[in-house]
Amino acid sequence: MADFNGTILTTQGLNLLAEAQAGQTLQFTQVVLGSGTWSSTMNPSSMTSLVYPSQTVPIQSISVVGDGTARIRFLISNSSLSRGYLLSEIGIYAQTTNSPNTLYAVTYAQNPDFIPGSGVTTIEDVIDIYTVVSNAQSVTAVINNSVMLATMQDLYTARPEFSNTAPIDTYAGKIWLSDTQPAEFYDGSKWQLFNAGLLGGYGVSATPTPNMLLPLNANAQFPASVIPATSLTVVNSLSVGGYGVSATPQPNAIPVSDSTGKIASDWLNLTQTPYWRVSVNETSGGDTTPTNFNVTRQFRYPSYGSIFFYILSWGVWSTLWEMQVNCTSSQTVVGKVGYVDDNVYIYLNNTLITSVTGAGFHNTSFTLPLSSGTNLIQLVHNNSGGSIALLDLEMNLPWSSLTFIPL
Fold first, then answer.
1. Who contacts 185 (Cβ-Cβ below 8 Å, separation ≥6)?
2. What is the pTM of this model?
């Protein structure tokens, strides 16, 4: 396989990723292989298609790795390829609910491999490629099940293991065969007998027998002989173990679902991870105030206060960062602006506190005098365009005395 460089998100791919981070499903649809040549002056992020598309191949599977990337597995086959080509470029296509299928990411190899046409040499190869999905909430793929190849690892993992001692390499559903005992399967925590007549190691009997499971009879009832009438007591249908039930939070009560079939959220002591609500103005890179900010898109940036926002090929745009908190008492918060490109303006409760202007390292400290009650912190970050947009801001909020208020 040719030595491909890491995948590069296109501008359209960045737009899809922003939508996915805002809650939409990011769905990978196909992989396109090409034989184009990239010049040294090309900007891959501006591509909307491969230079010379040669073959569209199906996606076999996708998995989110957990480090902000996804592994996309696809199959290269020349069974229906009319003529060969040099595999030098790969494009990954994706879509969201609101955006159509588009080129999401690309990669290129300086020394391409030749894929021959059908009838010369049979080519069937399963390839894994990785691309950035960041913290997108939902990532899926259009899977083509018409042609599937299993890797050696797939086959090895799925096979039963024959041994007279319990296998060490386990996973839920693994089968263990032995010539000294019945077949067993691993349920995720322990080995279970693989026998339809046993459940958890216990047999089944229609008559009461010690250490045996008792099924219902033909009338869907337990036999009367196992329920002595003298031991029956009337149970209050509105209490369990002496505790009442309630659809609304009550002391010493058991929660039950309300008319919607759900447990009321007031029963749960949940805390939400703080975040900045980020509004983007794609029509101007010169905003300095949150007043009358033109919002063209929004997303959430999970954070306890600090920001490190870095993106390539950013347009002439402005962003408005907002976080709302409730203070139990008045207090002062200290922050610092490290690097900014180009300018940032810091507001508290609609009052300008300070501004840091000019692209570069500043390490400028600032203070926010939070008052008792609700406080709205706002940052206006603008950028005149160029290769990057960057905002590095440290702010340690005293969350022991603060409550996050979602916007």
1. 173, 174, 175, 176, 191, 192, 194
2. 0.39
